[in-house]
Write a structure and sequence with these properties.
single chain, 34% helix, 7 strands, alpha/beta, seven-stranded mixed sheet, 8 helices, 233 residues, Rossmann fold
Length: 233
């Protein structure tokens, strides 16, 4: 992908998620408003994170729901999101809870955190949006301290399954995501084996944790592939 095309796709993705920000938390696993869903994510994050306080980078932080849980657990959280509206809501969410957190607007593939290094880099439901996910994975690993961890919560969504449409559209026939998104390498999601294979050469060890069967994480049952790739440096 040329630099100009990369910039155009990235700008379109930023506009899409900026427009989605006000309603983003209405999804059970986004807003974590229900106690069972919130508690399930808090327990999962606790199982992945090092002892507090640790430096955590939440890439593609959205409205900051996972950042909030991590801050409540005593971690020092930095969130990055391409959409200014998402970062603003995340900032406000932690401020309302009286918790510290740093939220930056920038490309998830190259987080604008300078020379900072982190004990945990967390990314949820993001890699499918990236024009060059392999380059992003290398960048994220470089941001992790020795002995740290990369956690990727991802999936392969139902509409991208082999018997589903190649380019899902909304009810009016218009593309449900940005124009040209079907050309993204992992549009619609990525399978656990493929993602683990991409991460494996960059880390000391990697494992996959299936998550689809845990309805409490999603606010109800799901019938697509959902998992976490947990990679240790």
């Amino acid at each position: 992908m040329t630099e100009a095309r990369y910039d155009a796709v990235t700008a379109a993705i930023a506009r899409y998620w900026d427009a989605a920000a006000p309603a983003f938390d209405e999804e059970p696993d986004h807003g974590l408003r229900a106690a069972p869903t919130r508690d399930a994510w808090a327990a999962l994050l606790h199982s992945w994170a090092p002892p507090a306080p640790a430096d955590v980078l939440d890439i593609g932080c959205g409205t900051g729901s996972l950042s909030l849980l991590l801050a409540r657990a005593g971690h020092r959280v930095t969130g990055v999101d391409l959409a200014p509206g998402m970062a603003a809501l995340a900032r406000a969410k932690l401020a309302a809870a009286g918790l510290p957190g740093r939220f930056l607007v920038g490309d998830a593939a190259a987080p604008p955190t300078g020379a900072d290094r982190f004990d945990l880099v967390l990314c949820r439901h993001l890699v499918w949006t990236l024009p060059d996910p392999a380059a992003a994975l290398r960048t994220w690993v470089d941001r992790i301290r020795p002995g740290g961890r990369l956690v990727l919560v991802e999936g392969r969504w139902r509409e991208s399954a082999p018997d589903g449409p190649a380019d899902p559209s909304g009810p009016d026939g218009e593309p449900s995501y940005v124009a040209g998104a079907a050309a993204l390498p992992w549009y619609g999601g990525v399978g656990s084996a493929q993602l683990a294979a991409a991460v494996g050469p960059l880390v000391r060890q990697v494992r996959v944790e299936p998550l689809a069967g845990r309805a409490e994480l999603w606010g109800g049952p799901v019938d697509d592939e959902r998992y976490a790739v947990v990679a240790d440096l």
